[in-house]
Design a protein that fits this description.
Layout (H helix, E strand, L loop, with lengths): L9 E6 L7 H11 L3 E6 L9 H8 L3 E2 L13 H6 L3 E7 L1 H9 L5 H8 L4 E5 L3 H5 L1 H12 L3 E2 L3 E4 L5 E5 L3 H12 L9 E6 L4 E2 L5 E2 L6 H12 L3 E6 L11 E4 L3 H11 L4 E4 L6 E3 L19 E3 L3 H7 L6 E8 L3 H12 L3 E6 L11 E2 L1 E5 L2 E4 L3 E2 H16 L1
Parallel strand pairs: 1-2, 1-4, 2-3, 4-5, 5-6, 9-12, 9-14, 12-13, 14-17, 17-18
Antiparallel strand pairs: 7-8, 10-11, 15-16, 18-20, 19-22, 20-21
The structure holds cytidine-5'-triphosphate.
Cytidine-5'-triphosphate binds next to helix 11 and strand 17.
Length: about 400
Amino acid sequence: MATLRLQHKRILLIVSGGIAAYKSLELIRLLRKSGAWVTCVLTKGGAEFVTPLSLQALSETKVYTELFSLTDESEMGHIQLSRTADLIVVAPASADILAKMASGMASDLASTVLLATDKPVLVAPAMNVRMWEHPATQANTATLVSRGVAVVGPDEGPMACNEFGFGRLAEPPVIVAAIEALLLGKRPLAGRHVLVTSGPTHEPIDPVRYIANRSSGRQGHAIAGALAALGARVTLVSGPVEIPTPAGVDLRPVETAAEMLVACAAALPADVAVFAAAVADWRTELATLKLKKVPGGAPPELKLTTNPDILATISQGTPRPRLVVGFAAETNDLVANAQAKRARKGCDWIVANNVGEGSHVMGGLRNEVHLVTADGVETWPELAKTEVAARLAQRIAEALT
Ligand code: CTP
C-alpha cells in the first residue's frame, strides 16, 4: 500500500500552457495516491492542451478556469482559493506565467491567485529551450527565487519542438519529492553550507589553446540543484560549462584547477563538500604569445606540471567539511580503483562511475554509479543524472542528521 505522506495536505495546482500540460494529469494522480487534496486552476493556455474534465476526473473536485467564475456567491473568492491551500504548485509553469508572477500582474485567475496568496509557491518551468535560456526568463526566475519561490527543473532532453536542451518539465515523481520537501518540512539541509565543484577545467597552453576534457558539468550542477532543493546554501565552483546554473545556487565560475582550488578554499567553511569536477591533472606553462608553426620545424613540446589535487587538499586540510564526497571517473577496475582513491585522498565517500568507451557518461544525461563508503559499496541502477543527484542529496541529508 502506498504511504500517504501527503495525507490531508491541500495543494492548489495551477496548470498553465504548454505541451507538458498533459503531465499534470500524472502529477495529480501521484498526489492523490499520496493522500493530498488537489484543486486545479487551468489557464486559458493550459486549456489548449488538457481539458477541465480530465483534471476534474483525476482531482475529483471542481476545476477553476476563469476569474469571473469566482464571483458567483456559491463559489469561494480568489483570495480564499489562494489561502485555503497549504501549497501552490505551478506545473507546468510557462514563460508567460513566470513573467506575470515576477512583474506582479493579475490579469487572469492564475496570476491573481498567485499575487493574492500568502502560501508557499513551487514552480516547475516547462518551455522551449530558447525561451528558458532567454535573459528575460532567467531574470524572472531569479526574481521569483529571491522572493522565496521554490523551483523544480526544468530538465534537459529532446523537446516536442524538435530541439534539445533545458526546458522539459521535471518528471512528476521529482515534482512530488519537491512538494514533500516543502510541505513536510523536509528541508533537512536548511542552515547548512555545501560546496560543490563541477565541470571541466581549462588549462591554457597559449592565448588561443587549452587542455580540457569532455565533462559537461551536468552531474555536478544537478547535485548542486538537488542540495539547494533540500534547503542547503550551495556554493558551486564550476569550470567552463554550457548549461544553466541551477536556481538558488551561488555560482563561482573558474577556468583552471589552480583557480578552482582558490575558489574552494575561499568558500570554506562548509558542512559538506562534493567534488564532482573533472579537474585536469596537469597544466602546462602558459605561452604569452600564440605558438606558431615553424615551416618544416618540429612541433612544440608541452612540458606538463601536476595540478594541485583539490579533493585531497580540502579532505586533508582545515577547516575540513564534516562530509567530503569525491568522484572517481574510471575506465577499468571501477570499485577497486574508487576504494583506493577514497583512502588515498582522505574523503568519506566516493561516487564511482564508469567513463569507459561506450558508457556515454561524460557529456551524457544518464549515469550508473557505485557509492563507496566506509561501510561498503552500494550499486545504484542506471538513472538520469538528476535522479542520481536527488538520491545523493538525500543520502547526504541523512548522514548529517
Ligand atoms: N580531483 C580534484 N583535483 C584534481 C584531480 C581530481 O579535486 N586535481 C577530484 C575530482 O573532482 C574527483 C576525484 O578527485 O572528485 C577523482 O578524480 P579522478 O579524475 O577520478 O581521479 P584522479 O585523481 O585524477 O586520478 P586518475 O586520473 O589517476 O584516475
